[in-house]
Amino acid sequence: MRPRSLGELIGQGHLLEPGSPLQRLAQGTGQGGAGEERAGRATVGRAGPASVILWGPPGTGKTTLAHVVSRATGRRFVELSAVTAGVRDVRAVMDAAREQSQLNRRETVLFLDEIHRFTKAQQDALLPGVENRWVVLVAATTENPSFSVVAPLLSRSLVLTLRPLTDQDVRLVIERALDDERGLGGVLGLEAEAADHLVRVAGGDARRALTALEAAAGAALAAGQDRITLASAEQAIDRAAVRYDRTGDQHYDVASAFIKSLRGSDVDAALHYLGRMLEAGEDPRFIARRVMIAASEEVGMADPGALHTAVAAAQAVALIGMPEARIILAQAVVHVATAPKSNAAYLAIDAAIADVRAGLAGPVPTHLRDSSYRGAQAHGHGVGYRYAHDDPRGVVRQQYAPDAVADRTYYHPTERGAEREIATRLARLRALLRGTSPER
Description:
The protein is of the alpha/beta class. The protein has 19 helices and seven strands. Helix 13 packs antiparallel against helix 14 and helix 14 runs antiparallel to helix 17.
């Protein structure tokens, strides 16, 4: 099912626009212009296509693009894998390519898979062929070329970034393989639930999707079925389908159960729902946001460290991504689920907002108003304000709230966790502020 032309390629639309470097490379024409300026000093103004480094996740079309490029204008195609090839193999390719070039025969395209596995010396062996245009190097890597490819080779190549396939892209790959003569040729149908399962397990990898489809088709045919069912797909892939719709009821139901498990301090249930969401392909950033909210809404000041953990987890998830992000999320979930619980801060802000919406705002007390501009004191602004740091206790009797809510108490700390100590301290502070405790 490998695409035979750029027109058959699914995904990577950002690289396939008319006149793009990849289009010109596949057509056998020079890149020229801005593309070559980005490529480095060796390609500017030179005839013929520049070498490229294809960087992207597995199954996104790197090898396919190399094959498409090789077919342009009947080029000679040589394929090496950095896993098995050595310097001797590279030099042999370069010698043959130089001979072809000198005899004005076919241009050589060298496809080097997993170039990041080559040592510096092995990568250096590619330089003469790339520099002299004996070969058009098409290298593929799943690692950042800035760190895995030597600078001289990087400066002589265009780096093209491939993006993970979307669920719709993967679904199109599967549908095409069902009907195409090179695939299943329309022999089997595919149930909607089975298709959803194949898309989920593919994880944006077209190769994985086709492998799973082939295995599921084999299971269906062995059972004498004319359709690939969810059961045959589960049996073939040895992975149960997680019934979860990221935009439907399951998304909201599982997320709701997840939050309520955190609130209820059932760490095992919370971890179950975490695993369920991750296995279904839920965005880990969505989960991290829910954990941050729970750290304040459900835990609050009973354990202020829970929010620190949740925020750190969200930042780490954004930096690292899956699959390692599952470990970070699990740590944050365990902290929030096992922490003492208090919704006092949550209730406090809602009560304050309710008063504001009811019109109980009132003017700011005159002694608290801005007195930094000329003439402010003539209006009484700042007059009578008491600076808290002038008192040895750091607290002075003074009205801070507007008159309309001066007697309101919004925050009621619980006796759980750190709030037990906060409650004692807060009672003392309020007594000093409101004059129910004698001044000294």
